[in-house]
Design brief:
This protein is α/β, with parallel strands linked by helices. It is about 40% helix and about 15% strand. It has helices spanning about 15-30, 45-55, 80-85, 95-100, 105-115, 130-135, 140-155, 180-195, 200-205, 215-220, 240-245; strands at about 5-10, 35-40, 60, 85-90, 120-125, 160-165, 205-210, 230. It has an eight-stranded parallel barrel, surrounded by five helices. Helix 1 (about 15-30) runs parallel beside helix 2 (about 45-55). It is globular, with a radius of gyration of 17 Å. The two termini are about 15 Å apart. The structure holds 1,3-dihydroxyacetonephosphate (13P). The site of 1,3-dihydroxyacetonephosphate has 14 residues, from strand 8.
């Protein structure tokens, strides 16, 4: 039985006061939540969130990391640095990193490897654009994104990874994939992994992201291959986020 994961990706939205209020609000509503809950904060706020969630069930995540372990890479942040602040999970290959910062499938694979090598759980994001979906290329695109990582780290290493299926057209648009659309891609991802390693495929948590909300979370998470959510906008409001956490 796979445990449900709900991860909040705050993206570039935070201030010290905002973080205090948001995390307080989440902590005060956590009773009755059985999902694993991860807060993926921007780098400067990791220390603050680490302190606020100390001794609770909430887990800390980062939104990016460098593929390099250390050295002269101005502005970069390594896996060991985020681990130093109690980070256990790190988002890798988010579509905003792929499209706005030019992260190719190979770069995403390198970053995933850096996370695994450091003992972090990568939340590896994959997903197609609207154009690709309309051209019936969803499975081909997702397969290419996954195969780049599989060929670098091997399917066995997916034991320590969470996959997030995030159709680009659903991110921040209010256009959620229907449960049927999402389930179909999640099943495709699980089957693709099963071709290399069935044990890992059955165990891996595959979560959905893209306009997941308090209203649609339960229908999505109840699908057999949807093991939770990666939440953007709704993760910035404690009540909405808690409702999603309780949907799992
Ligand atoms: P929204 O929930 O705002 O659509 O964002 C999803 C996302 O990109 C999470 O990583």
């Amino acid at each position: 039985m796979r445990k449900t994961i709900v991860a909040g990706n705050w993206k570039m939205n935070a201030s010290k006061d905002f973080v205090d209020t948001l995390v307080d609000g989440i902590l005060s509503g956590m009773s009755g939540v059985s999902s694993e809950v991860i807060l993926c904060a921007p780098f400067p706020y990791l220390s603050q969130v680490e302190t606020l969630i100390g001794g609770t069930n909430l887990m800390l995540g980062a939104q990016n990391l460098s593929a390099k372990p250390k050295g002269a890479f101005t502005g970069e942040v390594s896996a060991d640095m985020i681990k130093d602040f109690g980070v256990g999970h790190v988002i890798v290959g988010h579509s905003e990193r792929r499209s706005l910062y030019g992260e190719s499938n190979d770069v995403v694979a390198e970053k995933t490897k850096a996370a695994i090598d450091a003992g972090l759980t990568a939340i590896l994001c994959v997903g197609e654009s609207l154009e690709e979906r309309e051209a019936d290329k969803t499975e081909a695109v997702v397969a290419e994104q996954l195969n780049a990582v599989i060929s670098l780290v091997g399917a066995g290493a997916f034991d320590g990874i969470v996959i997030a299926y995030e159709p680009v057209w659903a991110i921040g648009t209010g256009l959620t994939a229907s449960p049927e659309q999402a389930q179909s891609v999640h099943a495709f991802i699980r089957n693709l992994l099963a071709n290399s390693n069935d044990k890992v495929a059955q165990k891996i948590q595959i979560i959905y992201g893209g306009s997941m909300s308090a209203e649609n979370a339960a229908d999505l998470i109840s699908c057999p291959d949807i093991d939770g959510g990666l939440i953007g906008g709704a993760a910035l409001k404690a009540d909405d986020f808690l409702q999603i956490c309780k949907a799992g």
